[in-house]
Amino acid sequence: MAKKIDYNKHIWEGWSVLDFINDLQFLFNYKKSEFKTKKELKEWCMDNQPYYKKYIPEVVNHFNQELNLK
Fold it and tell me: By residue range, what is the domain housing residue 38?
């Protein structure tokens, strides 16, 4: 069973988990077939998140629910 994601969790200066997901979603829809591992997805999320380049587990887990990468 997938872990429940707190989409309202504050991450950085007024940005929530959902804000980061919303910002990445459009590009993710075009890139998702390119990811082969969860590590690649994690690195992509960190590189493409606006302003905050640290690992946000909830963001990576949200996108990985669709891909189910290891």
Answer: 16-67
